Amino acid sequence: MTALTLSTSSAATVRADAVVVGVAKGAKGVVVAPGAEAVDKAFGGKLAAVLETLGASGAEGEVTKLPAADGLKAPVVVAVGLGEAPGKDDGYDNEALRRAAGSAARALTGTKKAGFALPVEDAEAAAAVSEGALLGAYTFTAYRSNGNGQNAKGGKKNDAKSAPLAEAAILGGKPRDKEFKAAAERAQALAAEINRARDLINMPPNDLHPKSFAAEAQAAAKEFGLKVEVLDEKALKKGGYGGLLGVGQGAEAPPRLVRIAHTHAKATKTLALVGKGITYDSGGISLKPAGHNETMKCDMSGAAAVFATVVAAAKLGLEVNVTGWLALAENMPSGSATRPGDVLTMYSGKTVEVLNTDAEGRLVLADALTRASEESPDAIVDVATLTGAMVLALGHRHFGIMANDDAFRTSVHEIAEEVGEQSWPMPMPGHLRKGMDSPVADLANMGERMGGGLVAGLFLKEFVGEGIPWAHLDIAGPAFHEGAPWGYTPKGGTGSAVRTLVRLAERTAAGDLG
């Protein structure tokens, strides 16, 4: 991953291959943001005018490169747009800084070192710039040839021109200040785990299946001192995990349930996280139509986010117990696959009539939610690429939040907004529950078509232990990005929800669960 340093050098004196400065859209044109004063001075106070001549407007994410003026050590200046300039007494929003740093880092692919001279008024701003740079520099090259017929996964180096930015120096970062140092360390740990989630999401399903995913968790547990338990198909059958077994029975790769936990000797609270881990979703017998299968390797994004969060909690030494449950299965059609009309007996003992085998995520989550509830955590949050209905409702950048407790839902939403993840609280209308009534089982895995994302949440609620605050994050929209990269968001897996879950764990450790 890109190295991160805090530097006391100015934008004029930093020894780097490029210096990044911020510009914004002002009332009368381009405005040079704080942090770029030395660069503006080197251009005779005309940096904004030069950029406007080159077509820059200061719009969010806009990147303009130009040769450095005399007096600057770095040979290249990279001006990145921050969007609308704030009011006289206001500072730049941390998410704007995060996105700008990400855009600049991506534009600096193939560069060894860049100095980021963006507005850094405090440690939080430094953290935002750090996170943006580290996340924006991300690339997934494990399966690319290096041009000589050798696959990079086999240990060969990729072309240096396509390598991510090697080092990001945050100017004005005060390396000896405790708050700034802690912010940089947290940013490094957080970005590393978000990128871990991205790597897992981007892996092809012929390499990432339930068994290999479980092995990844076991390896991380050994490295970071986590507790791990893996239930294979024999243990799942013995334990009566009908949801996981039912979804996975059509695949050659059998399902797994992984429990991975960070514990702290001083912890007084426990947060349980449950992740949907469908390593490939064909839809099963209810086969997905053409054009909907190609990205279904991403259907384990929830489990990736949970896994990454537990490791991040360990790296950060959070004084809270964080238990992750990875519900892993592959949903495939075959002669042994679950059929529409089959009835499954879940781990909870409830029976479910399967009306659509493509509504499989809620089945594996149901077993994991019941199991997680048995340990009586202080709260449970599940994360899943659960429904296309949520994408229709909120688009590709927001995830939906449902909960059995309004205060907890509000708290999770506020945390998501605080860390820069776009989300929206969704209702759980009781009248939609009737649509899941089944004539042969306790309930069906489908209900009314309209409001399908809410129906899925109501289904999951049936398997949460009594009295446990629970929230459901449907990340179907933002988990996998198919368009052009923007800000710090790459094409492919995004690591959605990791920042929200880590901040929730930090809040829980501080006694502010909500």
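Above is the first protein from milestone M3; the second protein from the same milestone is given next.
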Amino acid sequence: MFKKSPDSLIFEKNGETLKIQAWGTDSLRIRSTMNSDFSKNNWGLTEIVKNKSSVKIQIKDNEASISNGKITARLNAGGVITFEKNGKKILQEYHRSYDPSASRESIALKVINRQYKGNIGGGEYQITARFNPNDGEKIFGMGQYQQPYLNLKGCVLELAQRNSQISIPFAVSNLGYGFLWNNPAVGRATFATNMTEWKSECSDELDYWITAGNTPKEIVERYTECVGRAPLMPKDYLGFWQCKLRYRTQEEVLTVARKYRELGIHLDVIVIDFFHWCRQGDWSFDPEYWPDPKAMCDELHAMGTKVMVSVWPSVDKKSVNYWPLADKGLLVRSERGVIQTYDFNGDCLTIDLTNKDARNFLWKTCYKNYVKYGIDMFWLDNAEPDLSIYDFENYRYKIGPALKVSNLYPKLYAQTFAEGFTKTGKKDFVNLERCAWVGSQKYGVVLWNGDVQSTFECLEDSVSQGISMGLAGIPWWTTDVGGFMFGDPKDPAFVHLLMRWFEFGVFTPILRLHGDRSPQLKPFVTDKDYGGGFCWSGQDNEIWTYGKEAQKIMEKQIKLRESLRDYIAALMKEAHEKGSPLMRAMFYEFPEDEKCWDIRDQYMFGSEYLVAPVIHANEFKRSVYLPAGSWKNINDGKVYKGGKMYTVNAPIDCIPVFKKS
């Protein structure tokens, strides 16, 4: 029944093999299978780590335990696991099937802790892991969901990638543990009052990892040690990025960059968005509108501005690359019905980046058509991948059915370009991506929260999303300043929102002005139904677009951002070395302050700045909680004593920000 090795405890019963293995400092990896052996997949646990804490395994007649530093897993005779941190129970499997040692409540339900349900066709299982709830527990992290909730207790979360939804299944508990569902399958996490449940729709085995820590900071450090940390972002990416939907020609890009230079505003990055190509999947400039991309890049580089270009994983059937990819089996397959996976402005399939040959094809094409001209960065858009319908059960990748592996796709997308740049000798690359999975941060991608609307509700959600992404191990995160959809530059209400969003953006890891500004009045520059002149481009979206008062406010905020460049660089170093996010939940810096565990509308930017975004329209004062200590309002210089709430002014040209002194 019980066996052991130097670092693992093994339990066998009723065809199941359970293995609990010391994995990193104060951490355990739990795997269970109904097959003859475990797979070789480590999924998110990619880093080689040494156990820095002592491992102890004990086996008695009807129970066993394994300890690794602060964390202990205890098994009863039926294989029900109880986790302890320094001898105190923090998590226990939910088992109600005639085992009185597992629960003192009714055990006649025949609901078990680890459930395997065979899928039709065999080979894989629908797997469910259940845990008892902890009254008063607060749960955080898990990536990015379109909601304002920071504490996820009571939430049901789909474990799937969608435009503006990023599933990174790592949770941080206020009870002093972190939990990684180490599985890229589509599924669901339920943090209910009466049960916590993790479900995979299609998997070979159960796989999760748990760590114990004295503080959230220690928990995130343990986690990122095992899944990877972001590289060190250079200082010359930390200023202002200019973007819009979309610059139609290289002359438009240069005209914008030249005007910023005339204004004395330095652009760190300028972005060339979609349909600069002829067809999706060409991964090249349409020469009719981009006749000399090298000259364009040379001029921008002379200004000290890096050039980013958008890449999509969709491949139009009329693309020059469609048949080379299709013939080699390098496209995502449909299980039934039509083979199309994406239908935005084209009849498209999706390149299968779970296939190494497809990754090599994509990089070689982008290197030839972009990097050789001087393109510095890639915008890995539609990275979920975006699908016409998110019918996950209808698609298949090289490495398995979409239900089983699709959450891994954006990580492989990032890996494609990270490895490509690395092979060229470039080490300080930074790319932008719309989605991620566990450990994506190690591939040098900035994440953003997708095609959200231009509303105060989406601004409020963005605050929680940035904090949650940091707790899930993603320190490089940003947002479309102003929101992506439906913002009208001539609408005073939108301009008001834009100011508040811009002020928030200054205190995010990357400040990037972007959006599809409405209404779509600019005509196409071609009569063709394809190519770089086809498709709408949105209204202008530069700081001078919104009137003199708004421009003055944004110039002030850009200047503030520049003054923080050295400070942000130091935070980026901390993210690289320790995994610490830049946007930090209040409890991350003040775990001993109970009030900080309930705050979702303010955060710490690093350890020194407390940021309180204005998230409601026509709000010119707001309440701010200041933890113990002395705090200086950077806007008016007033000093406050911490440990209480204050109502502070928030004029239209700034949001409340306090520096700890």
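Note on the second protein: The chain is about 20% helix and 25% strand.
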